[in-house]
């Protein structure tokens, strides 16, 4: 059993319920097992599998199954239990859980010492026609299959794909689609619609310059400062931001990447304990995209932050259960961020946000980060505190 500073066990087997089996929930599980191998963990998640959602754009090259890990596999690997259910508690429910030290799922009463909520954030959705896909569709089927089901790859010209959203997710899908079409030798036009004046506008300008240059190289049309208004048959309805001019373009297929939106946000103190009416619930923690920490640590909606929050919350659960109850504040700062630009290219920053790198150096950073999480899924924790 590894040593955890400021933690002296009371030699009690803890019962911990983790609501959500995404990045934060898995990171918390591995961390708990590292310091308390006999911990009793129950993961409550409505899906049958853990999804490595940051890899979905790669399903134009690889099967979707490569990024799905059945919870049954994780149950055997970690000795935990998975209950297939959805729980989104409100403040009254949280207070009741804190008081009762149990919760009900269907007809089962689940006792706990601690709850960790890692339910993530929902993918923004809109009403869709049959020729509109969003991230939910790519969670159910590989990108290559979805495109082949809606497009005639052998047809010469006349077909267009519109990608809406130039954030990290939209850009990664855009480039994978461009290279997929090249491999298929499909003469299908590709464009990007984005509401800001540059892509990846949440990052330093170097990201935009690099990505837009590569877009030009691949003959991807770019419509900046343009809003999406809907899809009608084989046309996409748009509006220019500055002039208000509304227009339409031919679009056989439109892909919407509108970002994340957390339906329920859990505000926590600096240690990850959920706050209700300005008071921390001592035995209920939160981590991941659904949480906002009152601390100096990063609250970005990224897998990196989710993993770090999950690990910190797990450490603090153990410390709180011990003799000292000396908890660790969340101070993690992002160490970098990489956006994939297809199979052999990427752009990102490392250590300092102004330190923008592209090409193979960025791609190598991405591969190392992904390998680190793959090791975590096997129970090997290589993350630094």
From TrEMBL:
Domain of life: Bacteria
GO MF term set: NAD(P)H dehydrogenase (quinone) activity
SUPFAM superfamilies, sorted: FAD/NAD(P)-binding domain
Residue ranges constituting the FAD/NAD(P)-binding domain according to the UniProt record: 15-307
Cofactor(s) this protein requires: FAD
GO biological process, one term: aerobic electron transport chain
Keyword Ribosomal protein: no
UniProtKB keywords: FAD, Flavoprotein, Oxidoreductase
InterPro entries referenced in this protein's UniProt entry, alphabetically: FAD/NAD-bd_sf (IPR036188), FAD/NAD-binding_dom (IPR023753), NADH-Q_oxidoreductase (IPR051169)
Family: Belongs to the NADH dehydrogenase family.
Protein name per Swiss-Prot or TrEMBL: Pyridine nucleotide-disulfide oxidoreductase
Organism annotation: Nitrosospira lacus
Lineage: Bacteria, Pseudomonadati, Pseudomonadota, Betaproteobacteria, Nitrosomonadales
């Amino acid at each position: 059993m590894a040593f955890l500073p400021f933690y002296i066990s009371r030699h009690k087997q803890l019962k911990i319920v983790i609501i959500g089996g995404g990045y934060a929930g898995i990171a918390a599980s591995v961390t708990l097992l590292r310091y308390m191998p006999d911990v009793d963990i129950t993961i409550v998640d409505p899906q049958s599998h853990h999804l490595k959602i940051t890899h979905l754009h790669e399903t134009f090259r690889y099967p979707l199954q490569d990024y799905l890990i059945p919870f049954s596999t994780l149950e055997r690997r970690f000795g935990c239990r998975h209950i297939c259910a959805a729980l989104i508690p409100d403040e009254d429910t949280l207070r009741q859980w804190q008081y009762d030290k149990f919760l009900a799922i269907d007809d089962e009463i689940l006792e706990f010492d601690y709850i960790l909520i890692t339910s993530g954030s929902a993918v923004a959705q809109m009403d869709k026609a049959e020729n509109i896909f969003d991230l939910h569709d790519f969670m159910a089927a590989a990108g290559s299959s979805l495109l082949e089901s809606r497009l005639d790859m052998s047809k010469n010209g006349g077909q267009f794909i519109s990608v809406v959203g130039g954030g990290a997710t939209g850009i990664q899908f855009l480039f994978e689609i461009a290279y997929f079409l090249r491999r298929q030798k499909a003469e299908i036009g590709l464009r990007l619609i984005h509401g800001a004046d540059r892509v990846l506008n949440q990052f330093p300008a170097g990201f935009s310059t690099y990505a837009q240059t590569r877009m030009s190289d691949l003959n991807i049309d770019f419509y900046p400062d343009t809003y999406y208004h809907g899809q009608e048959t084989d046309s996409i309805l748009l509006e220019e931001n500055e002039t208000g001019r509304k227009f339409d373009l031919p679009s056989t297929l439109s892909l919407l990447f509108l970002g994340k939106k957390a339906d329920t946000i859990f505000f926590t103190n600096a240690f990850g304990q959920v706050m209700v009416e300005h008071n921390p619930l001592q035995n209920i923690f939160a981590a991941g995209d659904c949480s906002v920490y009152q601390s100096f640590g990063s609250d970005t909606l990224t897998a990196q932050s989710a993993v770090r929050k999950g690990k910190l919350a797990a450490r603090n659960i153990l410390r709180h259960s011990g003799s000292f109850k000396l908890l660790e504040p969340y101070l993690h700062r992002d160490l970098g961020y990489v956006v994939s630009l297809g199979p052999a290219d990427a752009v990102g920053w490392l250590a300092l946000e102004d330190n923008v790198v592209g090409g193979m150096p960025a791609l190598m950073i991405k591969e190392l980060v992904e390998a680190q999480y793959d090791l975590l899924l096997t129970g090997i924790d290589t993350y630094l505190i």
